[in-house]
Design goal:
single chain, mainly beta, five-stranded antiparallel β-sheet, about 0% helix
């Protein structure tokens, strides 16, 4: 099953060599287990949300809301 996500940029501007972008994300309800955002990945794993940076786990949130960060 493939879910379509529509990305519609609202504003792109350059302020002293720093690019600032604001966008709207419209998605259909679905069962998404992995979300990639640049170097970051959010994965559903065993009832937890696991946050990774460049493939290395940096934090997680369990089903009761406890947040754990990795050293």
């Amino acid at each position: 099953i493939v879910y379509a996500i529509n990305y519609v940029p609202l504003l792109t501007t350059d302020i002293t060599a720093n690019s600032v972008t604001t966008a709207t994300l419209t998605a259909t309800t679905g069962n998404i287990t992995t979300l990639n955002i640049g170097s970051y990945t959010i994965v559903v794993s065993g009832g937890n949300l696991v946050f990774k940076y460049n493939g290395t786990t940096v934090a997680s949130i369990d089903s009761t809301g406890v947040i754990t960060s990795q050293p």
